[in-house]
Amino acid sequence: MGVSAAKAARGATSSTAQPVAGNTQAAQPVSESPPTKVPAPPGPAPEGMVWIPGGEFWMGADEFPDAQPWHRVYVNGFWMDKTEVTNEQFETFVKVTGYVTVAERTPRAEDFPGAPPENLVAGSVVFSPPDHPVKLNNHFQWWTYVKGADWRHPEGPQSGIKDRGKYPVVHIAYEDALAYAKWAGKRLPTEAEFEFAQRGRLDRKPYAWGDELKPGGKFMANTFQGHFPDKNTKEDGYERAAPVASFPPNGYGLYDMAGNVWEWTSDWYRHDYYRTLASLGPLARNPQGPADSFDPSEPGVKKKVHKGGSFLCTDQYCARYIAGGRGKGEPDTGTNHVGFRLVRDVVKERA
Predict the structure, then answer these.
(1) Sequence-distant (≥ 6) Cβ neighbours of residue 107 within 8 angstroms
(2) DSSP string of 167-213?
(3) What's the pTM value of the predicted model, to 2 decimals?
(4) What is the pLDDT averaged over residues 160-170?
(5) Are 149 and 124 in contact (CB under 8 A)?
(6) What domains sit in the chain, N to C, each tagged with a CATH number?
(7) Which of 49, 81, 228, 335 has the highest count of CB atoms within 10 angstroms of its CB?
(8) What does pLDDT average to over the chain?
């Protein structure tokens, strides 16, 4: 979900949020894949990571036009973080490197032409629900640029993370995620890698855990219950982000691959990218995303793909916790519902 309330607050151009859309194209008829033997891990797992064996899968979703058509994709095996990067992990990185996140830096006037000087203050975008029902045609009714909001202060300067060490770090811009990845010797996943891992060996299921949103009445992810955006009934136990691994893992042993917080990928966002891939042949191998970005709802604004959905996802507005759902965000914009996790390639020893 691309939210540029930061720019709107500074007097610059704003973007439009992307609600759930009805299916406009039926899924292409497909045949079941023959069962294959899952390859063994190539060695001991790096700390906090699990082996994703790679292979072929169907990528896409019936529910969203930008996730159609279904198309066949192959990805190599890779290691992936079991959970989203946490506050305590990011804090270690900051203590070692002295890194300052985008949200903690004072914005430069040249990056936000026309913005009043008093609005050029360090901060980030925070979910701020209204106290009454509103129409869902203007997401600025529930997003606010908050001075002093950053990864240490998720809801603003009066909040903190003293007791949130195991929560996912948020207010992370794309370059912040890249900086952490470089320090950790890892990288961001591609969109295809994330979706392959998210599906956990399940074939074209709507959820990372199967066919039902709440199997046996059990919540499987941190999403929004109640009336969006004004009343969250917290039936799943959480109003906002939850500690990582608060819900069951998927078939690969990965936690929070749906809900909790959106996660950055390395791919540029294009609404028509799946159509392009499908037109190139029967199988896309290790796709790296398009060469450029285009969002018809905001032409000229470059965006990266988010995956997984967040604690704000609901079928009333944005149900993109569904496996195959796609989000989008400007690289310089973090919010309190966007984080990340990393992957690592297999290192082949020289003979």
Answers:
(1) 10, 115, 120, 121, 122
(2) SBP-S--HHHHHHHHHHHT-BPPPHHHHHHHHHTT-SS-SBTTBS-S
(3) 0.89
(4) 97
(5) yes
(6) 1-18+47-351 (3.90.1580.10)
(7) 335
(8) 89
